Structure formats: C-alpha cells, structure tokens
C-alpha cells in the first residue's frame, strides 16, 4: 500500500538534539554538525508512520512537520 504522509524538518527551528534520529533513524539523517535532516519532504512508508509521529512529539523545538502526502 502507498505511503500517505510526508515528514520534513524546519531547519530554522532544528537545534540538533538528534532525538528524531534516535527514534526514527530510517527517516532522519544527521549532518556533520549533529543536526537532523529530512529537509526535502520524505514520503513515509506506512510501517514507519508511528515512528514519524513519535519523533514529532519528542522534538523539543517543534521542528518536525508531518503533512498529508496529497498536500503540496
Ligand atoms: S529532535 Fe527536533 S530539534 Fe532535534 S534534531 Fe530532530 S528535528 Fe532537530
């Protein structure tokens, strides 16, 4: 079945706690400064949707945005 949500990080808000990467390494990469990257909207496979929402709720900066994949 197709993915239905996308996830991205707002770079201006991200402070590099890397909690998102710890919780969902499949969705968030760390750069050389320890900041996470999902800056180009990443389509989330259904089996990773729970992880995406967990990462979002654990980001202390509110930097993770989850959107419907139909939204552009
Ligand atoms: S948890 Fe939030 S602030 Fe920390 S690296 Fe991830 S997106 Fe950035």
Briefly say what this structure is.
By secondary structure, this protein is α+β, with helices and mostly antiparallel strands. It has helices at 19-23, 49-58, and strands spanning 5-9, 29-30, 36-37, 42-44, 64-68.
Lay out the secondary structure.
Elements: E1 5-9, H1 19-23, E2 29-30, E3 36-37, E4 42-44, H2 49-58, E5 64-68
Antiparallel strand pairs: 1-4, 1-5, 2-3
Bound molecules: iron/sulfur cluster.
Iron/sulfur cluster is lined by residues 9, 14-20, 35-36, 59, 61, 63-64.
Characterise the protein shown here.
With 72 residues, this protein is an alpha+beta fold. The protein has a single domain, classed as 2-Layer Sandwich (Alpha-Beta Plaits). It is built from two helices and five strands. The protein has a three-stranded antiparallel sheet with strand order 4-1-5, covered by helices on one side. Strands 2-3 form a two-stranded antiparallel sheet. It is globular and about 30 Å long. The structure holds iron/sulfur cluster. Iron/sulfur cluster (SF4) binds at residues 9, 14-20, 35-36, 59, 61, 63-64.
The low-confidence runs, each spanning 5 or more residues with pLDDT under 50, are: none
The global form is: globular
**Any guess at the CATH architecture?**
2-Layer Sandwich
Q: H/E series, N to C?
A: EHEEEHE
Q: Report the sheet-strand fraction.
A: 15-25%
Supply Rg.
Answer: 11 Å
CATH class: Alpha Beta
The tally of strands reads: 5
Number of helices: 2
Main sheet attributes: strand count, strand direction, barrel closure? 3 strands, antiparallel
Residue share in helices?
10-25%
Strand order of the largest sheet: 4-1-5
Kindly give the count of domains.
1
What would the CATH topology be? Answer: Alpha-Beta Plaits
Structural class, please? alpha+beta
**Which ions and ligands are bound to the chains?**
iron/sulfur cluster
Please report the distance between the alpha carbons of the first and last residues: 20 Å
């Amino acid at each position: 079945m197709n993915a239905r949500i996308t996830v991205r990080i707002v770079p201006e808000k991200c402070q590099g706690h890397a909690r998102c990467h710890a919780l969902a390494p499949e969705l968030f990469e760390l750069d050389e400064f320890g900041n996470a990257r999902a800056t180009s909207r990443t389509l989330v496979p259904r089996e990773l949707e729970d992880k995406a929402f967990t990462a979002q709720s654990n980001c202390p900066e509110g930097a993770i945005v989850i959107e419907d994949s139909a939204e552009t």
